[in-house]
Specification:
With 199 residues, this protein is mainly α. 70% of the residues lie in helices and 0% in strands.
Length: 199
């Protein structure tokens, strides 16, 4: 395994550890089941988008792991669009930045963090910390990671998973914004007017 592939795999393990760690922490400390993606009573459009997000992010994570482990072998059948080592290492830095953004965002949400739209639990509107600069920093972290993976493993598979994942996340954000307006009314409208969707 090349050094760059090993670093990419370590970053995946770091990301999964942050993600699962946050879910576990919320459940153990607060008895909150924060993974509500595709679960609960929601309208058909939200459920469809959440399922799309689930499939897209699974495919992206699968591509990340497989490319990290078998990148050289995959390259024989699905060639890289370029092979510049410096650009690929820049991609590693971009992935790392995305993991950090995601981690800071998830932990800054405290007990309000959810995976998916939670129609059953009242949460707090978080507008401080990293949320002063972006309404969706966790999703910004995801998009940054998607981009980094494509730069490190630049083939049609990672390009496709990046595009599908970014589109599905954006569609989820649009639904989440409607939910937040319903939940927080003018408080969210003011926040939305003062803070960018992404950055």
């Amino acid at each position: 395994m090349e050094k760059i592939n090993l670093v990419a795999l370590i970053l995946f393990i770091l990301f999964i550890s942050l993600y699962l760690g946050k879910l576990l922490l919320l459940y153990r400390k607060n008895k909150i089941n924060a993974n509500v993606l595709g679960k609960g009573k929601k309208n058909k459009k939200i459920k469809l988008i959440e399922r799309l997000v689930k499939i897209a992010t699974f495919l992206w994570g699968f591509a990340w792991v497989i490319e990290s482990i078998l990148g050289d072998k995959i390259d024989e059948y699905i060639p890289y669009l370029y092979t510049n080592a410096i650009v690929r290492w820049i991609g590693i830095v971009i992935i790392f930045i995305g993991v950090i953004i995601f981690g800071v965002a998830a932990f800054s949400m405290r007990t309000s963090w959810r995976v998916g739209i939670d129609k059953n639990t009242k949460t707090e509107l978080v507008t401080d910390g990293i949320y002063r600069y972006s309404r969706n920093p966790a999703f910004l972290g995801f998009d940054t990671m998607f981009t980094g993976i494509f730069i490190v493993f630049p083939n049609l598979i990672t390009l496709g998973t990046m595009i599908i994942s970014m589109i599905s996340i954006h569609l989820l954000i649009l639904q989440e914004e409607k939910h937040l307006i319903e939940s927080f009314g003018d408080g969210y409208r003011i926040y939305k007017g003062n803070t960018s969707r992404y950055i």
